[in-house]
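Hey all, quick one. A colleague (J.T.) asked me to put the zinc ion job into the tracker so the inputs and the structure tokens live in one place instead of scattered across chat threads. No bug as far as I know, just bookkeeping. Sequence used:
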Amino acid sequence: MLIRTCPTCGSDKIKKVQRDWTDEFEGQFYTVPNLEFWVCPNCGERIYDREAMRKIEAHSPAFAKPRTPRARAKARVPVTAGARAAA
Ligand SMILES: [Zn+2]
């Protein structure tokens, strides 16, 4: 994916950087090591291409596959009356 200008301010000075990237999801911090993304020196915007998004999703608890009953509820999986007895 080619990114030439900042989607926020339109600056063409954005540059690609590679560094550990940390974010927080519902109080849970997670790190994506050596993530490549774009930074706009004009407004500070950070832009992630598809590959970067894929790496973030692979590390983020927000995109984690549901394993616990609580996670399933957040994923809005329909709960039937029978499932309640099994829990
Ligand atoms: Zn910008």
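Adding what we noticed when we looked at it: Residues 17 and 78 are 42 Å apart (CA to CA). DSSP finds three helices and three strands in the chain.
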